[in-house]
Q: What sequence folds into this?
């Protein structure tokens, strides 16, 4: 009897013993240019609009999110990756960054800085969602938050503009802004009652006709979170929602004036937007302005945000006005890839160092370190020994200059400097090489 595998077993692709956890993935060098561009773009926009970088831990106290984002929200109720530490603390992987950034603002006494404080961030977030197109369990956000100072509509407009500039710089064409105001607590108390009355009447009429009914989630929302009825994407629920009273009719005059102010700033720079009175967002800390970004082709939000004047108070700080936005990097990159939009890596030119023979390889190894110390970017193919394949690699890399060391050069303590465009070569003593390369790179 033989133990040889059957043909089927040989051809079947063997699953590796370990795979990335569900809804999480690796970012490989082949797509690194997209990710690098996203981070660099966010950093450029932040600099242009005066935001300082903040980085918070990936783990936070679970209570920060239950109090900040809201215990009744999907994010906190169903989607957090939570753990107990050996010391008994309950921590969660951050599902979003606004509550952690506000925690950091309070903890680090940022209210003593000139107000408002503008902060930006970039990093992974974690939500235990059902993975599907554009929805991951680990995904990246970049965000811009303006905390403190006045409750001025100009700041709402500024975070919206920063987000649009980010999308445009990421080659997302004609981003669509959907915007709404959900008022303050007192506007919402009035609106909640109106909405509940409307749904009760609809359901009563529906049960008479044995027709209209809402989904199980919406039945629950009628008791727990009435505004989220407007978020439902189920067909039957949407049909009812589209006839529901508009929250804009329940705004008191300060909230109405604030919203008008935001829209006037956007009008001033000719930024088009679309009013969506049913936009309520999935996090509890919002008040007044809320918004989301879409493209014409995709019905999936590329970013979202709003004003959150109550958050500081909810997590134990002094009441502090704030407004911000977060952009979903995975979704933006997904759109670029499916539209075949490529970003060339913003490559800085690298010198290619070539060796011929074992002794030269050692010299080259040391020379690379010398070049690095002089801040000259270098690349090599130390694993390849043939001159031809190293020169091919230098060509592929697009290096402007190759430095070649063979036995003769080692003996003379020199290197051949080859201009890769013209093919012109010159032998230069090694103690003059840094100077020579810098001169050539400048010109
Ligand atoms: P959010 O709407 O939950 O808001 O998330 C912002 C963006 O993150 C979404 O528009 C989407 O592009 C992306 N995103 C969310 N969940 C996923 C997922 N599972 N997979 C891929 N991408 C996803 C917030 O997080 C708020 N903290 C935004 C904010 C900042 N509000 C005020 N300041």
A:
């Amino acid at each position: 009897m033989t133990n040889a595998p059957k043909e089927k077993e040989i051809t079947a692709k063997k699953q590796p013993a370990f795979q990335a956890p569900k809804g999480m993935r690796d970012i490989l060098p082949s797509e690194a240019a997209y990710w690098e561009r996203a981070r660099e773009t966010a950093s450029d926009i932040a600099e242009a609009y005066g935001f300082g970088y903040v980085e918070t831990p990936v783990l936070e106290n679970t209570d920060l999110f239950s109090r900040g984002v809201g215990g009744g929200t999907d994010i906190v109720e169903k989607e957090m990756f939570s753990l107990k530490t050996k010391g008994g603390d309950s921590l969660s992987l951050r599902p979003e960054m606004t509550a952690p950034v506000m925690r950091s603002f309070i903890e680090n006494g940022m209210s003593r800085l000139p107000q408002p404080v503008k902060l930006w961030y970039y990093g992974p977030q974690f939500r235990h969602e059902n993975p599907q197109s554009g929805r991951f369990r680990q995904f990246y956000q970049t965000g811009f938050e303006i905390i403190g100072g006045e409750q001025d509509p100009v700041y709402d407009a500024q975070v919206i503009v920063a987000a649009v500039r980010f999308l445009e710089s990421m080659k997302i064409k004609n981003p669509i802004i959907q915007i709404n105001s959900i008022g303050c607590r007192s506007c919402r108390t009035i609106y909640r009652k109106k909405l509940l009355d409307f749904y009760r009447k609809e359901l009563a009429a529906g049960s008479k006709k044995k027709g209209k009914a809402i989904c199980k989630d919406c039945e629950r929302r009628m008791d727990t979170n009435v505004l989220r009825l407007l978020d439902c994407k189920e067909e039957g629920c949407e049909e009812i929602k589209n006839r529901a009273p508009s929250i804009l009719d329940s705004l008191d005059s300060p909230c109405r004036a604030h919203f008008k102010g935001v829209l006037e700033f956007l009008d001033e720079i000719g930024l088009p937007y679309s009013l969506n009175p049913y936009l309520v967002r999935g996090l509890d800390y919002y008040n007044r302005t809320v918004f989301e970004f879409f493209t014409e082709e995709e019905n999936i939000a590329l970013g979202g945000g709003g004003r959150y004047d109550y958050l500081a108070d909810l997590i134990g700080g002094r009441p502090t006005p704030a407004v911000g936005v977060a952009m979903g990097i995975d979704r933006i990159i997904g759109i670029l890839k499916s539209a075949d939009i490529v970003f060339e890596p913003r490559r800085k030119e690298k010198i290619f160092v070539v060796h011929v023979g074992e002794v030269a390889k050692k010299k080259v190894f040391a020379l690379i370190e010398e070049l690095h110390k002089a801040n000259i970017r270098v690349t090599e193919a130390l694993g390849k020994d043939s001159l031809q394949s190293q020169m091919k690699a230098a060509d592929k890399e697009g290096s402007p200059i190759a430095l070649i060391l063979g036995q003769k050069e080692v003996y003379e303590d020199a290197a051949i400097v080859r201009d890769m465009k013209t093919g012109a070569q010159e032998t230069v003593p090694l103690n003059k090489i840094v100077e020579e390369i810098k001169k050539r790179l400048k010109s």
